[in-house]
Amino acid sequence: MVAEDVIVKPVITEKSTAAQAEGRYTFEVNKKATKIDIKRAVEKLFEVKVKEVKTINVKGKPKRQGAHEGKTSDWKKAIVTIDMDPKSLNYKTKGGKDATSNKKFKTSIEEFGA
């Protein structure tokens, strides 16, 4: 899946706004997206390091408009926890030498509240 197709929109509620202080961001995602797809999409789009992804399938609520009955659509919600203190990644190369990745990660998602 393409990263732009995975994330539908941010979910902005009082509870999700309070959770941003701990590095948890809430998104509405594609119903077919897996946790790995969501992690890769958030890391690519927002340049942050993702620690954990939790997903919830939200059922639609019954609604009435006069005599007509129906229900809202089912959707999928993802709560993504980002690393607030990202460190450089150390690994060994093929020759057995130590190497360090110097990729810079952000510590928050600024575009979320906009």
Low-confidence stretches: none
In the CATH hierarchy, what is the architecture at level 2? 2-Layer Sandwich
CATH class identity: Alpha Beta
Which bin fits the share of residues in helices?
10-25%
Supply the helix-strand structural class: alpha+beta
Major sheet size, sense and barrel closure: 4 strands, antiparallel
Summarize the topology.
Blueprint: H1 3-6, E1 7-10, H2 14-19, E2 24-29, H3 35-46, E3 50-58, E4 62-65, E5 68-71, E6 75-82, E7 89-92, E8 98-101
Antiparallel strand pairs: 1-2, 2-6, 3-6, 4-5, 7-8
What this model shows, in words?
The protein has 114 residues and is an alpha+beta fold. The protein is 19% helix and 38% strand. It has helices at 3-6, 14-19, 35-46; strands at residues 7-10, 24-29, 50-58, 62-65, 68-71, 75-82, 89-92, 98-101. It is elongated. The chain starts with a helix and ends in a 13-residue tail after the last strand.
Please tag this protein with its features.
two-stranded antiparallel sheet, 3 helices, elongated, four-stranded antiparallel β-sheet, 19% helix, 114 residues, alpha+beta, 8 strands, single chain, Alpha-Beta Plaits
